[in-house]
Design goal:
Layout: E1 2-5, E2 10-13, H1 20-24, E3 29-33, H2 40-57, E4 62-68, H3 79-87, H4 90-95, E5 96-98, E6 103-105, E7 110-116, H5 122-125, E8 130-135, H6 143-149, E9 159-164, H7 172-177, E10 185-187, H8 198-210, H9 213-221, E11 237-239, E12 249-256, E13 263-272, E14 275-285, H10 292-299, E15 308-310, H11 315-323, E16 329-331, H12 338-347, E17 351-354, H13 359-367, E18 370-372, E19 379-383, H14 389-397, H15 399-420
Parallel strand pairs: 3-9, 3-10, 4-7, 4-8, 8-9, 11-17, 12-15, 14-17, 15-16
Antiparallel strand pairs: 1-2, 5-6, 12-13, 13-14, 18-19
Helix pairs in contact: 2-3, 12-14
Length: 421
Amino acid sequence: MGELLNDEIYADVVIPDKLIPVFESKSRYKGAYGGRGSGKTRTFALMTAVEGYRLAEAGASGIILCGREFMNSLNESSLEEIKQAIKSVSWLNDYYEIGEKYIRTKNRRVAYAFTGLRHNLDSIKGKSRILLAWVDEAENVSEAAWRKLLPTVREDDSEVWITWNPENKGSATDKRFRQVEHEFIVEMNHNDNPFFPDVLEQERLNDQENLDDATYRWIWEGAYLEASDAQIFNGKFVVREFERHPTWNGPYNGLDFGFSTDPTGATNSWESDGILYIEYEACKVGLEIDDTPDYLKDNIPGIEKYELIADNARPESISYLKRNGIPKIKACVKGKGSVEDGIAHLKGYKQIVIHPRCVNTAKEFRLYSYKTDRLSGEILPEIIDKHNHLIDSLRYAHERTMKRGANTKRHRATAGKRTYR
């Protein structure tokens, strides 16, 4: 049980014990890093609302800024996470006014703002006083973004909160907030979360059984990501910014439908000189079919104008999207061996370049793996059916190019035989 403390206000909220000292203290920087299921994001979302309550009751006026490196739309922000946190606590739910695209205290003193730090921070920083800034998924925040953000959070007693899953030792976030000691930035993993759900425990045990040790420790124990031969695309891709050239081939748009716990995932990609460029993604768990057309359009510009190849297992969903704003959607073909063929095709590119805004795509490329033997560490010829929804969308999108490539190879082989005859 944690307490919000100042001279006059006491309010009880339930948070993991390890984070109580963080929020009981005043500090310029507060944060948590670590593996999946630690409760860090949910706790920090909740505590932004508690802090907003404290500030508003103390007479302060301004905004709570919630940022990520890239944010194309509110769907990619912390908006929904904060809404759910507020609704979970009755006195916070009574204190805030929550709309479809906004959260603010009913006395209008404190409001939330959401932004992408790389390109959109300038549009917000001059409009209101930033009382608190929370940066979630901070691993990929660039040094340039940190240099721009931190001086804008300059009110007396203002704070910057940071939550992230570590990946690269030496990233801008790692250098600033992990390699330099900060008293109230702590490591949080699943064993620090008293509310760790059973469904995640089953996933953790499955990953412990099937993944190589380095990948398992990155997902669940906050370790840096180490390259592994079990990772299917190890050494094949890079994450960097690029500008699309008019001469590139494409676009190649693909869609994989989600279910209750799996995301609906779509990608937009291009090809040039043997290099595959992934420019946009759309990825959301629990996306209702009624909301899918607008979500796709919001996250992949112009997707309605070009052919979109979707998973053929959901013909009713394809039919719905065709009638409701995505007229060029078509079903993929698939077939026996299509997964292996698709992987081979993607690995056949000289390089795969993923734009940094495609956070979920990059994560899948890091995690998509072959099974390993738990005792010997031997890599097995079996693909783990996880972390592949956006990769599946790429396979569907490039069915056309795969077929052309296969036909070309067969033609060349036949021509060769005839020549030697």
